[in-house]
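Friendly challenge for the regulars: who can give me the structure tokens for this chain first? No prize, just bragging rights.
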Amino acid sequence: MAKEQSSVRERQRTNLREPRRYKVIIYNDDFTTMEFVVKVLKLVFFKKAEEAEALMLKVHHVGQAVVGVYSYDVAVSKVQRATQMAREEGYPLRLECLPEGG
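First reply, four minutes later:
Bragging rights claimed.
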């Protein structure tokens, strides 16, 4: 009897899902100038002047605002860069990255 070769391969199930996204939040404080916040939003988060000013005013009136949603690595690096800029200028500006939807 000849051996038959099967051309059927078993498929392995892989649970693939989209990577989690993280929102970057900027918080209001009494010492960081509005101009500096706009500068950070333009240089680090690549916001246009109008959007940067609108976000800065939201932070000023509400106390915080989401400035963007990114992959984890990008969110962390943007928070670090903005925080470093603030410390170099002597401002206590605070940013945070949190999982989106959580």
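The chain has a mean pLDDT of 92. The first strand starts at residue 21 and ends at 27. Your move, everyone else.
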